[in-house]
Amino acid sequence: MRNIFYCILLVFISKKVFAKDVYFDFSVKEPFVESGSEFEVKFNYKFDGFEEKDFLVNPVVDRGLVKYRNNGLSDVFPISLIGFGNISLSFDVWNLKTGDIYKTPIKPIWSTLVYSRYLEKLNTNLRSFMNAKIDR
Predict the structure, then answer these.
(1) DSSP per residue over 7-53, as a string?
(2) Which residues are bridge partners to 24 per DSSP?
(3) For residue range 23-73, what is the model confidence (pLDDT) as tens digits?
(4) Which class would CATH give 18-135?
């Protein structure tokens, strides 16, 4: 009898719990970028109960510098990266109404100079490997 009372009490006290349907991701049109040149990042997002003006976007890189104009969340975000090597890029999206911070996945952005040096080194190593195989 006591268990039934507790079950009924639990049903009346409990609140509805649901997960917010929020999603943020981005894509870059070109995988190779000149250092210092501006390129566009396209945002893919889904959120319920908020408007684009309720969000502030902040780029995050592991090395180098970022130049950007933050006009809030929009479909296309112009950005310029200044750095050496491949840069890992992600974004923090701040909800100005709730104070929540959403993080996008981290994606590598290669500079054209570093990528061309990488290919040059790779081809050199392949040639020396193939020459060593032929000599045997």
Answers:
(1) HHHHHHH---------EEEEEES-SEE-TT-EEEEEEEEE-SS--GG
(2) 45
(3) 788 888 877 887 777 888 888 888 877 888 888 888 888 877 787 877 677
(4) mainly beta
**How far apart, in whole angstroms, are the C-alpha atoms of residue 32 and residue 114?**
9
- 52-62 in b/e form (b: 16+ CB < 10 A) is eeebebebebe
pTM for the whole structure:
0.67
Q: What 8-state DSSP symbol labels residue 59?
A: E
Q: pLDDT for 70-90, tens place per residue?
A: 767 777 888 887 766 678 889
Q: Angle 57-92-100 (CA atoms, 0-180°, nearest 5)? A: 95
Q: Give residue 118's region: left, alpha or beta (phi > 0; psi -120 to 50).
A: alpha
Cβ(112)–Cβ(133) below 8 Å: no
